[in-house]
């Protein structure tokens, strides 16, 4: 990374870490290695009045050598149920991280956009087709599933959906599957436990 980009990136990191407005809405960023400003870890809070409220979502940020002329590679490392995020890999489908990227954009604008994406899913341009299908077919089930994932993976407070918890427990305690495998299969099959069992057994 050239000196000019390193100076810019260092300045942007300082902006995010010291800005009260970002801290107040739960946006944080830190270096993974103090000697390497191109490898970052961020955290965003789930927005209020969404299924992600109360969750703390971690992101990995890999900044390319030709930044800011190319966008950073941003992924969720906390699992999240959202049409524009892969439920398996955490890859994000967001225009500004692809063809709509501009050199004037910053870490601040990227993190704000990712947080805003949680408020405004775009199921017609999905990263995860299964999640998008559930969103369009049964929005209430989607919201309950997203909230459940937020409680399990992003440590959101509150009582978990009892019916969903019971189905996960049946697959984990009674049948020996791990929680992640059980929860993913149930979510993929709209919480139809028979279809989930059939899928897991195949």
From TrEMBL:
Keyword presence, Nucleotide-binding: yes
PROSITE patterns, A to Z: UBC_1, UBC_2
Coiled-coil portions: none
Ranges for domain UBC core: 4-155
GO molecular function annotation: ATP binding; transferase activity
Record keywords: ATP-binding, Nucleotide-binding, Transferase, Ubl conjugation pathway
GO terms for biological process, alphabetical: protein modification by small protein conjugation
SMART domains, A to Z: UBCc (SM00212)
PANTHER family, per the entry: UBIQUITIN-CONJUGATING ENZYME E2
Family: Belongs to the ubiquitin-conjugating enzyme family.
Record's protein name: E2 ubiquitin-conjugating enzyme
